[in-house]
Design goal:
heterodimer, A: mainly alpha, MetI-like fold, 2 domains, two-stranded antiparallel sheet, 14 helices, 2 strands, 1% strand, B: mainly alpha, 12 helices
Chain lengths: 305, 283
């Protein structure tokens, strides 16, 4: 027995575990999506690809094509996620920039404070906001007193006084930003930390204004971090159903995650739910490959210089 | 915009944004913890300090069977998850690190996929698996434990492989040169060197299990398999008492204590950079 096989044997239990509970499990989604359901509307998967039934998939695609519910929900999801990511960048980039390049001896402490939210249960952090934004909560009172509530109402981002948890898209987006921005900041800190100060100095010496040095050196060099961070927060946001459930609990803010959750976990339309999960996975796979390709391309460019 | 004119000076507005952000990220949770100690039923009006929601009230976490059950089940799942995911992940990391020949790259990619797969996709996949492929397992504690191990495994492998790479092959080669048989090289050289990474990955697995929500909820069978996260989700919008905050606070303290301990152990044995990398990994 060569030692080559010893190590394969050591890896075997883990490999088998992933094969069954990750790959076969994912294949189960495909086979249920291309399967049928019995009289009790329980899913009947078709394991042989030759038997696959495209009926349910076509039904879902038809719904999309005619611009019905699934399309509305999907567009809303993309809209919410896009706005939330833009806000995450707006908040996260300056924080990451300061931490990576200007914090000096406070850098260690700042990093600990930035990592802290990772260690706090996401639902606990949402619970905190529900307490604050309840009609008589401290946050609601403060937002009222400093005039933010009135500004939101006049901008049509909030429908009534104190009604933050009342099916408001703005509340869901703010909760998204609060929940996921830490995941965006850390890759940004890493990317910005890596930039060689001499490259910025060189741009300045060659006559670039601070602004154009930032736009033409710092920003492009942090592009990989920006992309990594955005994908890192986009993936969980696209699958999120609990945040809208918790801060809105209204069909007005139903996202694709809510639709899947209602069909698969709560409801009895598991086949349709599996089709939607499959479509979501394919969409996110595209995103992941785009991300891998861009980061690899960026790495190549950096290597050639 | 003085910073645009002179980015070498102290960028005050960046400092202000950073401080405001830190306050914004930490204060709401601090207030939620504070209200766990409220001497009244309200979670929005402060009525004085007390431990009643932890220990004495009829609805406190030690007296309410639902809270108590959720806490016990959460800890039980976490222990199982650590006990299974850690050895499985350490073995997979060792095997992958020394994998020669084709297949290693593919396995590595599959191993990394759970880290980026949205939890709802894993939730649906495992739900259908346990309903249709393993109906004899079905939904419930076993399914929940298996689901949690499946996504914590990757974290264990990544942490252990990081340590393996930084140790390098030299110690093992030295032991071999001095005549140590493979068995001794494994148990007297590699595993002791890996110990900090093993402890760190066990702590991360423990924390991930306690904080997990989606997979655990999808694979939950009935009320007896409710965890702390699930209880937070289902009662946050009802009319809960501060006992809910107390429950969340206890879970938070357990997670924090575990991770802080692991971080200290890791820093004692490994370099600071590696320890920071492990700390940042807990997503």
């Amino acid at each position: 027995m060569g030692s080559r096989w010893t190590w394969r044997l050591v890896a075997l239990p883990g490999v088998a575990w992933l094969a069954v509970f990750f790959l076969v499990a994912f294949y189960a989604i495909v086979c249920v999506a291309f399967g049928n359901q019995d009289t009790l509307s329980q899913p009947v998967p078709f394991w042989n690809p030759l038997d696959w039934n495209v009926g349910y998939v076509l039904e879902v695609l038809r719904n999309f094509w005619h611009g019905e519910q699934y399309l509305t929900v999907s567009i809303r999801t993309i809209e919410f996620v896009a706005i939330a990511i833009a806000l995450c960048l707006l908040v996260g980039y300056p924080v990451a920039y300061y931490t990576a390049r200007h914090a000096g001896r406070w850098k260690g402490l700042l990093l600990v404070l930035l990592i802290l939210p990772f260690w706090i249960n996401y639902l606990m952090r949402m619970l905190a906001w529900i307490n604050l934004l309840a009609p008589d909560g401290w946050g609601t009172r403060m937002l009222h007193d400093i005039g933010i509530e009135r500004a939101f109402i006049s901008l049509n981002l909030l429908s009534a006084r104190g009604g933050w948890l009342d099916g408001q898209p703005s509340a869901v987006i703010i909760a998204f930003v609060y929940g996921y921005v830490p995941f965006l900041i850390l890759p940004l800190v890493v990317a910005l930390d890596r930039i060689d100060q001499r490259q910025i100095d060189a741009a300045r010496d060659l006559g670039a204004s601070p602004f154009s040095a930032f736009m033409r050196v710092t920003l492009p060099l942090s592009k990989v971090g920006i992309l990594a961070g955005c994908v890192l927060v986009a993936l969980p946001m696209f699958g999120d159903y609990y945040t809208p459930d918790l801060v809105s609990a209204s069909t007005k803010t139903n996202l694709i995650g809510n639709q899947i959750d209602q069909f698969t976990r709560q409801g009895s339309q598991k086949v349709t739910g599996a089709v939607l999960t499959l479509i979501l996975s394919l969409f996110l796979l595209l995103l992941m490959f785009y991300y891998l390709r861009t980061t690899r391309a960026a790495g190549k460019v950096a290597g050639e210089e | 915009m003085t910073w645009l004119r002179n980015p070498w000076g102290r960028p005050r507005w960046l400092l202000v944004i950073t401080i405001v952000y830190i306050i914004w990220s930490i204060v709401p949770v601090t207030i939620a913890i504070l209200f766990a100690f409220n001497n009244g039923r309200s979670r929005t009006t402060w009525q004085g300090f007390s431990f009643r929601w932890f220990t004495s009230d009829a609805g406190s976490i030690v007296n309410d069977p639902a809270y108590q059950g959720a806490l016990k089940h959460t800890l039980f799942l976490a222990v199982i998850c650590v006990a299974v995911a850690t050895p499985l992940g350490v073995a997979l990391a060792l095997g992958l690190q020394r994998w020669r020949g084709p297949g290693g790259g593919t396995i590595n990619t599959v191993m990394l996929l759970p880290l980026v797969t949205p939890e709802i996709v894993m939730g649906v996949a495992l739900l259908l698996l346990f309903l249709r492929v393993f109906p004899e397992i079905g939904l419930g504690t076993t399914a929940q434990a298996i689901g949690q191990v499946t996504f914590t495994l990757s974290y264990v492998v990544v942490i252990v492989r990081g340590r393996l790479t930084s140790i390098g092959p030299e110690y093992e080669e030295a032991a071999a040169d001095l005549g140590a048989p493979p068995r001794d090289r494994m148990f007297r050289v590699i595993l002791p060197l890996l110990l900090p990474a093993i402890i760190a990955s066990a702590a991360v697995a423990f924390a991930l299990s306690i904080d997990d929500f989606v997979v655990t909820q999808y694979l939950s069978g009935n009320a007896s398999t409710t965890t702390v996260s699930m209880l937070l989700y289902s009662s946050a919008r009802g009319a809960p008492t501060p006992a809910l905050n107390a429950l969340a606070t206890v879970a938070l303290l357990i997670t924090m204590a575990t991770l802080a301990l692991a971080f200290l152990v890791y820093r004692r044995f490994a370099s600071g950079g590696e320890a920071a990398a492990v700390a940042a990994l807990e997503v």
